[in-house]
């Protein structure tokens, strides 16, 4: 969706402020939101693409005012309600509804390190042959879906060159909708900065994006 | 757009600059954790373990070890640039938000810089969780359109003869910049070199300096 999250190239979003020696979490609640998101995600009711889509659906003015972990908190509550792990009434009251069944067992502390170290690879084996090879010229599609996509606005309808093929990766645009993983070739595509930004960009400078085959057409 | 009467209470100031968050958010999170615990959905000990992992076990020291190894072991550097996920796992680092790693090398003619304009993707196993400036709207919006201005503000003035190559992390590939090894470090051990390598150098917003 053409949301406030798609920030590449926007002006007026404030000064760059660097905090020396900042902590990993600035407030204890941020750490809890981070950890809660992982533990709730472990139930497998939603995926990372659906989670990102949920954040993108935050009303744009709220998104721009919210901090990073406020956005995570928003998505956590929305996902947990939407996918049936808690109800809106329980969020309001802070108590389980009468008769609510207790789910067991939750993510255990002893499993955390192993799960974090294993991660969740997004590569899949597919028969689909890659349509492009490194060096091929491609053009990104001029698409404006109202749902989740990882093709930023600034890189739509632009010509670039395939730099690398990363194998077949889960396609976020369908996975976020629970319409299937639709794994397909993922490429790094290099764009001349001036193709994207015109004369304000340095003549030698480039921008590389990782783009799925469905975002591309031959140039 | 979801109809949502329940979004977090937002105050009229930005939090990207490190101000105190509203205490009602803290209370709300506390109530949420208590609800989820009571429902058997989370175990607070697992939350503590997750926080401990990212506060104490994973961070830019991991990435610095990778870079120092690449600087001192040419065969390792070849492996790192060819298949970073496997080469990084050789040193024991792997997992969430680092499942598909690519290492990009700075040279006298190419300077690499990492951003995620759409959210704040970052290579957690080697750099830990991202700093606020990396997650800020300012960095996410500006890094792709005016990387040289961003770098100048951060103290790095690159000549126009150098290609600034910005990597926007739009998929699940995560990037680690291998900075240039500074002159005058030929005598240093791998450990000494690792101590020089900063987080920002591995994001590509700084050079490695000899102390």
The end-to-end distance of chain B, rounded to whole angstroms, is: 51 Å
Shape of chain A: globular
Name of the CATH architecture of the largest domain in chain A = Orthogonal Bundle
Output mean pLDDT of chain B: 92
Of all chain pairs, the largest interface belongs to: A-B, 113 and 96 residues
Give me the CATH superfamily of the largest domain in chain A: Nitrile hydratase, beta subunit
Report the end-to-end length of chain A measured between terminal Cα atoms: 25 Å
Kindly state the number of beta strands of chain B: 4
Q: What is the alpha-carbon Rg of chain B in Å?
A: 20 Å
Number of helices, where a helix is a run of at least 4 consecutive DSSP H or I residues of chain B: 11
CATH topology of the largest domain in chain B: Nitrile Hydratase, Chain A
Individual helix count of chain A: 8
Order of H and E elements of chain A: HHHHHHEEHEHEE
Explain what you see.
The complex is a heterodimer of chains A (219) and B (211). Chain A has helices spanning 28-41, 48-56, 60-65, 68-82, 88-93, 109-118, 172-175, 193-197; strands at residues 137-140, 159-169, 184-192, 206-212, 216-218. Chain A has 219 residues and is an alpha+beta fold. Chain A is 32% helix and 16% strand. Chain A folds into two domains: 28-118, Orthogonal Bundle (Cyclin A, domain 1); 137-218, Roll (SH3 type barrels), CATH 2.30.30.50. With 211 residues, chain B is α/β, with parallel strands linked by helices. Chain B has two domains: 23-55, no CATH class; 60-203, Nitrile Hydratase, Chain A (Alpha-Beta Complex). Chain B is 45% helix and 11% strand. A two-stranded parallel sheet of chain B has the order 1-4. At the A-B interface, helix 1, helix 2, helix 3, helix 4 and helix 5 of A face helix 1, helix 2, helix 7, helix 8 and helix 9 of B.
């Amino acid at each position: 969706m053409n949301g406030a999250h798609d920030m590449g190239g926007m002006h007026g979003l404030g000064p760059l402020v660097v905090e020396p020696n900042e902590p990993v979490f600035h407030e204890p609640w941020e750490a809890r939101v981070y950890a809660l998101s992982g533990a709730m995600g472990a139930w497998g009711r939603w995926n990372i693409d659906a989670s990102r889509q949920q954040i993108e659906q935050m009303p744009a003015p709220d998104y721009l005012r919210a901090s990073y972990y406020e956005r995570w908190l928003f998505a956590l509550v929305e996902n947990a309600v939407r996918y049936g792990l808690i109800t809106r009434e329980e969020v309001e009251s802070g108590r389980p509804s009468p008769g609510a069944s207790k789910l067991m067992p939750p993510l255990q502390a002893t499993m955390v390190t192993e799960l974090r170290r294993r991660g969740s690879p997004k590569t899949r084996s597919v028969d689909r042959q890659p349509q492009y090879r490194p060096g091929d010229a491609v053009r990104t599609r001029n698409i404006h879906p109202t749902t989740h996509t990882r093709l930023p606005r600034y890189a739509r309808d632009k010509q670039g060159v395939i730099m690398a093929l990363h194998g077949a990766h889960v396609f976020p645009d369908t996975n976020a909708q629970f319409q299937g993983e639709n794994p397909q070739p993922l490429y790094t595509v290099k764009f001349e900065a001036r193709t994207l930004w015109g004369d304000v960009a340095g003549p030698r400078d480039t921008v590389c994006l990782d783009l799925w085959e469905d975002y591309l057409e031959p140039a | 757009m979801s109809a949502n009467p329940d979004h977090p209470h937002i105050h009229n100031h930005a939090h990207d600059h490190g101000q105190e968050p509203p205490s009602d958010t803290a209370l709300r999170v506390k109530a949420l954790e208590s609800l989820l615990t009571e429902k058997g959905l989370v175990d607070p000990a697992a939350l503590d373990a997750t926080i401990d992992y990212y506060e104490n076990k994973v961070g830019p020291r991991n990435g610095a070890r990778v870079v120092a190894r690449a600087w001192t072991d040419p065969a390792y550097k070849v492996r790192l640039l060819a298949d970073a996920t496997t080469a990084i796992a050789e040193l024991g680092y792997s997992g969430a938000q680092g499942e598909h790693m690519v290492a990009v090398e700075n040279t006298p003619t190419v300077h690499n810089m990492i951003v995620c304009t759409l959210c704040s993707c970052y290579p957690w196993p080697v750099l830990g969780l991202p700093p606020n400036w990396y997650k800020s709207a300012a960095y996410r919006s500006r890094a792709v359109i005016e990387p040289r201005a961003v770098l100048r503000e951060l103290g790095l003035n690159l000549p126009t003869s150098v290609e600034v190559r910005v990597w926007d992390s739009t998929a699940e590939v995560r990037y680690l910049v291998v900075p240039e090894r500074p002159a005058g470090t030929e005598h240093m051990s791998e450990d000494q070199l690792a101590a020089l390598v900063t987080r920002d150098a591995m994001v590509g917003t700084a050079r490695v300096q000899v102390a």
